[in-house]
Design brief:
Strand content: 15-25%
CATH superfamily of the largest domain: Ribonuclease H-like superfamily/Ribonuclease H
Largest sheet: 5 strands, mixed
CATH architecture of the largest domain: 2-Layer Sandwich
Mean pLDDT: 94
Number of strands: 12
Helix content: 25-40%
Strand order of the largest sheet: 4-3-2-5-6
CATH topology of the largest domain: Nucleotidyltransferase, domain 5
Shape: globular
Length: 307
Amino acid sequence: MNNQSPENMKLDEAIALLKTNGYRVIRPFEPRTTYSDSPPPEKLLKAAVLDTETTGLDPVEDKIIELGIVVFEYCPETGQAYRVLETFNELEDPGMPISPESTKIHNITDEMVAGKRIDDAAVQALMSDVSIVIAHNASFDRGFVEARLPMFARKAWACSFAQVAWKNEGMGGASLEFLAYRYGFHFGGHRASVDCHALLEVLQCDLPESGGKVMKALLANARGNEIKVWALNSPFDSKDKLKAHSYRWEPERKTWTVLLPQANLPQEVDWLREHVYQGRPFKLELEKIDAFHRFTSRRGTTETVSY
């Protein structure tokens, strides 16, 4: 082992020395303005990484107090990002007190947001030609931004928390802070645009088991359509079979339902015919779920089909 003190070595040499002795070195995160020096392909699209800070967890009762957006250009085939085009971060007065519990999370106080409002026109211009919105918890963020800025309902969405198989990649968690740690950096989290830049950094990392960029895997899953199957008038004595087959009981509609990839629908119909409806004619309600309807309470295109 080299006995030279790290204080007297160049930083890179000190880091290399620590790594050779089994240490994990976590670097402070610095947002980037570009992610590749290679000539970009002819076809590039724009994506937006989005994050919100809010007064609480309920998009009906609570309000956005900070909106962060980072727009970047990317190759839709590889997921490679190129230039970071714009960073947007604005505070908004929610018209209600911010609870001490919320402030502990994001460090935003009533005084910081007093009299402030997100610039709707600026957000509209920023998002005009964005092809997809990416959030690390889209089920949370989408409801809040659509309530405040309805134009987001017309955008395709992807969720880097739910639509990347982090467990299969050997990750022990999927929080943004944990993923950053595993990818070798740390950042001051829970301010909107900082979280956006940190998420973009994770998206440009490679998956440890399957290889390829996180962004590429996310895009593939976001593009896929799903079908929500409602097993209408299923016999009562089939409930255990349905439950074992991953169906969930919807008490409001009193119907068993399951979400599955669209390509799996023919096999599912065959299974239902044999195991649930016992060869008798039956009807299914089918709801198409795509990136424009995912992570929202709005229903997708629905039809009832007789079999």
